[in-house]
Please model this.
Amino acid sequence: MNQYTEEINRRRTFAIISHPDAGKTTLTEKFLLYGGAINLAGSVKGKATARHAVSDWMEIEKERGISVTSSVLQFEYGGYCINILDTPGHQDFSEDTYRTLMAADSAVMVIDASKGVEAQTRKLFKVCVMRKIPIFTFINKMDRDANDTFDLLDDIEKELGIATCPVNWPIGSGKSFKGVYDREKKCVISYSGTEKGTKEGTATEIPVEKEADLRGLIGDEAADKLLEEIELLDGASAEFDLETVRAGELTPVCFGSALTNFGVEIFLKHFLKMATTPLPRRSDKGLIDPAENDFSAFVFKIQANMNKAHRDRIAFMRICSGRFDANMEVRHVQGGKVMRLSQPQQIMADERKILSEAYAGDIIGVFDPGVFSIGDTLCCPKEKFLYEGIPTFAPEHFARVRQMDTMKRKQFVKGIEQIAQEGAIQIFQEFNSGFEEIIVGVVGVLQFDVLKYRLENEYNVEIRLENLPYEHIRWIGNRDEVDIEKLSGTSDMKKVKDMRGNPLLLFVNSWSIGMTLDRNKGLVLTEFGSPS
Ligand code: G4P
Model:
């Protein structure tokens, strides 16, 4: 315990994960509305225009009308200080999206009630599981026709392998959506479709035991169905257990409609009650408690050229312990230097705010003159420890890079290495050759365009990308026990190495991965590369 404990304990830092269009942005807007961070929901990302205000830093964004970066938002609600980390979707899905999850202490998973679990949610969920962070589910769009409620829960359990515990239960959906049954209070909260951008309308609450009133409110048919489902549910669903939730093995589920602002505040309240305070982090000197007096942080994301005129980079860091003060000196452990962090800032919905202090749990962005790398540790000058690094996530798209003007070899290598160091792309070489053949791997295809654009604009190097058919990459988990030269895979498998010389295997499909594992008994392949 120290003087900062109170500030730290009221912090909740979470990421929102979902498949595009499930309603992540709409839900975030509503959260902010409750927190009073913005006046009118809609200004987080008013689709084409307002979104640019958030990160208007790259031509490519303007051309495509999408946000390449992920943003961090902070707001206050009910005495809590909440940090939301957005995980961008659509084409702008990138390795950054995964890395963002390394900075969160819990995750909110938004699922479209008419779709169930979708591809991007599945991918992001895997990272949450790896980190064993609690996951809170919001099943959205109940004002539209939804899948059967039991099927939706079943889908989450089967697809994601996590037990579910409904906090509330929907009564109908679409045109016949009547509201939800709150399992804890044992009452029905009626649906009050409200205007976009306003707070929740006045809902009626009726205890379920007052059956006549219940029937009056939602009608006989819905009431019969609900009473039957409640009975089924109480017998069948997993017992609520906070410890299991916090271990990431059980997800509390709320149903609602972000657009019409139904069930959002209830979800937020439940979530804040159950989510953890900033968690301790592993370092080479053991777990570092957030409440420790001394400041420490790690870099989880580097964003280049936010301001084109200055060609600067912003390093995003998650504060892991103590309090940050803009005037303090910190040690950049990997760089071996003691320094002041320049222009510390917090990225709000549509503005950047220079900040003077922040606490464990918070995310800050600082000006980076090109010294930070992803995973770097910062701590107070008298200390010298390293936080556990950030794993490398598997790219899903690969291309061979051809340089158009071979005279510019030096710029080309410098550029591509720097962009890789920022973590926007991963670069590989043929296993048995040098740097003449470069393969680029990216998590989202947009990164190919970003690479091409940046090499041309910042390094004056033109390239051509030839797409390769690989979709999967695997690290070799037991490298010391395997002779890479002798590995026998399928004919379409390719052996490559990364910049650190680690061997990797590229596969066209998952069947080839299975065949290779079959042919090489004892071989261990992993989807995450160990941290640098
Ligand atoms: P995302 O960030 O997860 O990609 O999703 P986003 O919030 O942008 O929502 C995707 C679309 O789904 C939007 O419609 C949004 O209005 C709608 N939506 C979100 N929540 C709900 C809900 O609870 N009920 C219903 N019926 N729709 C919902 P759009 O037409 O693509 O955009 P817009 O023109 O409404 O902004």
About this structure: DSSP finds 14 helices and 33 strands in the chain. The two ends are 33 Å apart (CA to CA).
